[in-house]
């Protein structure tokens, strides 16, 4: 198995957390301590992101399913609960469809889009990556020192950028700028790719951020096609990456979804 980097702590049933494209396992840091009294929590860096090396088997849903199946076995997790945001939400749904997990919680998952929505989302994220690559870290830090600066840098990504610390903004920008997995992961969405499910046989929760400016929330009828027996929730005041916007709410959604 590829040398996947992860943080693990807590007690109870296992819950694996999967971040989005261009992000890192520390995206879950605001909710991590709220989960560990109740779950054995494993936050992973996807291959090609954060500190995990690029995958030997390539990028895409199928290689990711193989990787996670091996990771679950190596860590003795059996069929864990899984939760993911954006790309991580898409992978969580795919893991549920494959029968590899005991529950799925997807926060603003990728893949449930129209072609136009997909093109907009990928273009927006690529623009953020280009900006991160062209802006020196000391300039990012200077801008991130003020609430207005943090809003300018990440206001498209999170709903409450003023809650982020300058250090988190700087490190997230570095992770986005340097992730070798960004382009090949984005390339997987070419053509008419769309995740249609259905995900059945396991509990599924899809929670969409109210202030998501990256991915438009599908209609309820479309969500029911993906998860016919799923639960669907709105995350008030939250942006596309909701964990820092309202950690208590997100933690509750994850705990409820992994009962």
UniProtKB/TrEMBL annotation:
This is Alpha/beta hydrolase. Keywords: Hydrolase. Residues 15-252 form the AB hydrolase-1 domain. It comes from the Bacteria. The lineage of its organism: Bacteria, Bacillati, Actinomycetota, Actinomycetes, Pseudonocardiales. Gene3D superfamilies: alpha/beta hydrolase. GO terms for molecular function: hydrolase activity.
């Amino acid at each position: 198995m590829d040398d996947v980097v992860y943080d693990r702590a807590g007690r109870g049933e296992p819950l694996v957390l999967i971040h989005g494209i261009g992000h890192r396992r520390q995206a879950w840091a605001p909710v991590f301590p709220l989960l560990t009294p109740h779950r054995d929590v494993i936050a992973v860096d996807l291959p090609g992101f954060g500190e995990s090396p690029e995958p030997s088997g390539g990028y895409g849903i199928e290689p990711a399913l193989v990787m996670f199946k091996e990771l679950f076995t190596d860590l003795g997790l059996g069929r864990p609960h899984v939760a993911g945001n954006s790309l991580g939400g898409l992978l969580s749904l795919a893991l549920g469809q494959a029968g590899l997990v005991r529950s799925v919680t997807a926060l603003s998952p990728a893949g449930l889009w129209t072609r136009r929505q997909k093109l907009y989302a990928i273009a927006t994220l690529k623009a953020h990556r280009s900006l991160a690559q062209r802006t020196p870290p000391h300039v990012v830090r200077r801008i991130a020192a003020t609430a207005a600066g943090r809003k300018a840098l990440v206001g498209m990504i999170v709903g409450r950028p003023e809650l982020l610390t300058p250090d988190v903004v700087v490190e997230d920008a570095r992770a986005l700028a340097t992730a070798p997995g960004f382009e090949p992961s984005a390339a997987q969405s070419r053509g008419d790719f769309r995740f249609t499910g259905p995900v059945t046989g396991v509990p599924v929760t899809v929670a969409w951020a109210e202030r998501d400016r990256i991915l438009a929330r599908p209609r309820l009828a479309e969500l029911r096609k993906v998860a016919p027996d799923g639960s669907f929730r709105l995350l008030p005041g939250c942006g596309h990456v909701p964990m820092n916007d309202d950690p208590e709410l997100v933690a509750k959604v994850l705990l409820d979804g992994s009962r």
